[in-house]
Amino acid sequence: MLLSKEKLENGAIIALWKIEESVEELLEILHHDNDLLLQIAQFGSEKRKLEYLAVRVLLNAVLNAEKTIEYHPSGAPFLTDKSFNISIAHTGIYVTLILHPKKKVGIDIEKISDKAVRVQHKFLSQKEIDFVENSTEKTHLTLLWCAKEALYKIIDVEIIDFVADLQVSPFQPYIAGTIEAQEFCTQHQREYTLSYKIEPEYCIVWTVEQ
Asked: Order of strands across the sheet with 13-18?
């Protein structure tokens, strides 16, 4: 089910889908495309099949046209007709995407859980951990995780050290807002502004190339 579709001032489109359908129902929406049938036959997990199909249903619903997604060797998705740059993310029963006709984009969505707390040292520097307050720890860490994943996707460098190569500036989480960050894995060392929203179940963070 399409939960939201929003066109931003910078020309990007963000959309969110809640998977309430079965594999068969999603395939029916996609007209039982033979290429998709062959692709999902390779997936052992029902969850993976649902995510794969739901993203394509969402994309077609947003653009009101049938589009084909392929993947670069790095794993980054692209549309075969080059009409938009695209980034995709999923967590649990939610899938999301961001599109822009010209600029690179990155997006991530994560369920708010203890996982970000448990693995924080794997993706954050001590400096970043130090500005996280105990009262908002779970949400704050999930936002930081999303931010670094969104950065990883927009930078599209195959090997990135999340701790050393991606630096997020201190911020206090609200229901929605922005996050400042910088990458140190390319010669450009670009700065990024990321936007975010916090929902009861998940956080979503996205960024568009300046």
From this structure: 2-7, 13-18, 94-100, 85-91
